[in-house]
Amino acid sequence: MSQSGIVSLWNRYRSVGIVYRIGVAFVLGSLVGLVVGEPATALKPVGDLFVRLLKMLIVPIVVFTLLMGVRQLSPSSLGRVGAQVVGLYALTSAFAVAIGLGVSNLVSPGSRGLEELLAGAEAQSAEAPDAVEVVLNVVPTNPVGAMADGGVLPTIFFVVVFGLGLTLAWEETDDEQVKRGIETFFDLADAGAEAMYKVVWGAMEFGVLGVFALMANVFGTAGVDAILPFALLIGTMLLAAVVHIGLVYLGTFVVGVAGRSPVAFLSGARDAMVTALSIRSSSGTLPVTMSDADENLGIEERIYGFTLPLGATINMDGTAMYQGVAAIFAANIVGVNLSLVDQFAVVAVAVLASIGTAGVPGSGLIMLTLVLTQLGLPLEIVGLVAGVDPILDRIRTMVNVTGDLAVTTVVATWNDAVDFTADAWNDGVGAALSD
Ligand code: ASP
């Protein structure tokens, strides 16, 4: 083939979205594993290389992206509405992880078929750690040491308090030089985060090969038995999403707090939900989310103009929920029972990590590396679930934007900033429940 032929072939290949190429690699790798059997496991080192790349990214991602997230939380820009919003955002994310954990504990999505697969992988959390120790260990005695050891929770803890320290210092100092220094510091973190996303996507480019190799290894070892767990994983995530939307957003917020019909809320939020499902990015969906809040749900701009952009950055209930579901999936696969303490650690890491997750396609998958590292579970799982991520990401993103709108509706209700005569509330299904 001529050189220009190769170049145009390469360009054609690159023009297909990376997640779809990974999806194809997932299917092809699985087929190769099924057909070739045991010899396909020779590809394992290629998969291992992908896993090493992911590991390399963990600490820099936490540091840069969390600093970027904490910058949004500067105390003076928040005020009373801000405190309500941030409180609810954190609370709903914690519920989302708990529901993700609860549903997957019931279903055990990873327990059928793959057990022997990663049997050799280390499962350091097999012995239940002491609860007091776990809580104490969240605070690092040496932040640099925690980062060097890849300690996820202590690193997150340090970065969050450091970021809050920076925003407070910025607000309280009159010294222009210090102010400028802090701004530069945050700007550098923003730049670092942008750069890390580029590196992540570079790693994902290699991930096309990595996922192919990992899947060839999985099916080469486990055969057809490996199909069911992935189907169960998707089903579990869907079930957890429905339970969360039903119980928290509709049951508690829309009906309980606002006293309105859940159908009305869903019809008002429909455009944003459908857009999120199709483009897999809550940041990309933001204009639609805002127009739903304004035109359909009758929420005043002074509320949604603040809560929705903030939500698209820091509130990721679907992403947080996914961490819970995937943690149980991973634990099932290596045959470990996660203790209650482990599961609390998942809630803590997932809620904090979701603050730093960018509202772009696939970022929740990278955050999974944090949760798995915290639990001492093998990072190969990230490679395994990457192939079905185009489906899981849609569910996550749809929950993410629905959560932003549900919290915005509650806060607007509390602050008398919602017009319940607006379209969605009144097109026949939208009357107040008490009417
Ligand atoms: N794609 C999601 C979002 O934009 C983030 C994720 O990957 O979980 O909200």
From TrEMBL:
- Where is this chain's protein located in or outside the cell? Cell membrane
Residue ranges spanning the membrane: these are 18-37, 49-69, 81-103, 151-170, 199-220, 226-250, 325-353
The UniProt entry, under Pfam families, shows: SDF
**One GO CC term, this protein:** plasma membrane
Q: Which UniProt keywords apply?
A: Cell membrane, Membrane, Symport, Transmembrane, Transmembrane helix, Transport
What topology does it adopt in the membrane? Multi-pass membrane protein
- UniProt cross-references to InterPro entries, sorted A to Z: Na-dicarboxylate_symporter (IPR001991), Na-dicarboxylate_symporter_CS (IPR018107), Na:dicarbo_symporter_sf (IPR036458)
What's the domain of life for this entry?
A: Archaea
* GO-annotated biological processes: carboxylic acid transport
Q: Which GO terms describe its molecular function?
A: symporter activity
Protein name as catalogued: Proton/sodium-glutamate symport protein
Q: Which organism is it from?
A: Haloferax volcanii (strain ATCC 29605 / DSM 3757 / JCM 8879 / NBRC 14742 / NCIMB 2012 / VKM B-1768 / DS2) (Halobacterium volcanii)
